[in-house]
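Field: COMPLEX_INPUT
Field: COMPONENT_COUNT = two
Field: RESIDUE_TOTAL = 258
Field: MODE = joint
Values follow.
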Amino acid sequence: MSKEDEIDDRGFKRDLLASLPNLRAFAVSLTGRHDKADDLVQDTIMKAWANQTSFTAGTNMRAWLFTILRNEFYSQMRKRGREVQDSDGLFSERFSVHPEQYGRLDLQDFRKALDKLPDDQREAIILVGAAGFAYEEAAAICGCAVGTIKSRVSRARARLQELLGVSGEGDYGPDAGDAAITSRAFGS
Amino acid sequence: MSDDNRKKQEMTAIQPPEVRPGAVQPNASISRKLRDFYDAVQEEGIPDRFLDLLERLEQAEKNAKSVNVK
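Field: COMPLEX_OUTPUT
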């Protein structure tokens, strides 16, 4: 990015706002729930605001915010223990609240599969595959080696394929609905 | 069409497709679902509570500054 050196209070808020939808999607991915995710985002905003002098202007604010949120998430988890146990029940509950936003059955199955991944694999594949970070940035956010991130991402992919019953067959074409129908037809 | 031929055709149909330009790889399907899921949350936008929170933080900072000036 350019001209980030001109950052001031306004710039900080503007950049923070610009990162929020992505940050919030990361929080939902980590917690599996919107209400918990929003609490986590709120804590992250407060932390980020209080520590804005420690943010180096011109560096990647998104990565900085993700790091804060991730640290906050794991420290809260250590304190409370993970409350999300019955993930299937929770997810169906959430989806019945916002069915219009997650209309595709496909997506619900995907979220359930995602929640079955170990935390380290889930965050790795989300950071690299959805949030748009390079392996190097994801490694910095998670505080681990680039090779570790790469292997977590590939294990996460393999596990998701297994959970979703995705293989080379029937898993191509523009529409997932068609693919599902096709695989059902072949399956019976 | 003889039975033999039909069998042959079915087998061909089930075989994995060749990799051709624009074809979606198995991993690409996972990646697409991942982005669909993620984008669905992103597209919800920013809840008001965060806009309010930032507004309050900004105001508190301004107030603190004006106190310092005095």
